[in-house]
Amino acid sequence: MKENFIICASVAILLAICLQLVMFIRLARRKDFGPLWENDLFSQKNDIAVNRLQLKIRIFGEEIKAYFSTVVGRCHIAIFVAFALTALVFAIASGQAPEATQ
Fold this sequence. Notes:
Layout: H1 2-28, H2 47-68, H3 71-94
Helix pairs in contact: 1-3
């Protein structure tokens, strides 16, 4: 049981890392995304910095929606959820899950 938990949890972690890599590649191809840290975005206390940050968050949201609307994206999320839930089941069955504090 413990080995199955380790395998399922490892696959779920690898799928999460792959999602970050896919998003990095998708955002790198966009011309309107640009570098996030240019001109030290967070030290400036003005509306321009806030607007730029909100724009980048919106662009990231659009890209993640576009990825999950594809067949590959839907398979990616389905496989991730399946392995994460399987790891949780194996963790509970083998006694590896953290106990609730009372």
